[in-house]
Amino acid sequence: MAPYDINLREYWRILKKRKFIVFFVGIVLGVFSTAFAILKAPAPLYTSVCSIKFEKETTVEGLYAKTITWSGGDDIETQISVIKSFTIFEQVAQRLGLLPKAIVPAESPAKGDVARVRTLEAIKYIEDQLVQVRQRLREAEEEFNRFTQNNQLLSIDIQSEKLLASAQDVQNEV
Known about the structure:
The protein has helices at residues 8-17, 19-39, 60-68, 75-83, 86-95, 114-150, 156-173. The protein has 174 residues and is an all-alpha fold.
């Protein structure tokens, strides 16, 4: 019997020749796997429904900060991803008694209340962000003031008042 070396080109030739069989077997296996997973899925232990009120910041500082900064993210999607995070699932399972105490590490945030831990983290994050935004706002205002002084720029209101006054003077003279 002659030795026959098979390489990648041979495999590719076989796959091209039998492509319909490969696709058919893949589709059949996918359908049967999905059907088996759906039929043999365990019954859910519990279901829950939750309504969350999410309010955007409407303070003057918040509105002013929104005009300076731009965020490409969606606030509601961010909150949804936080709620669906593993940490929250872990805390809920711990409070429902589905996880033994030995499984949850000592430094795990699941030791406290779910909402309280999240609220404290959110408050700390917001306070840190507020300090940073205020600092950037002060720096931007100082830079704007320096720019207007260096370039001797006047506001549009002052310029329009001067133009109206000079137009009134010209009209009075006429």
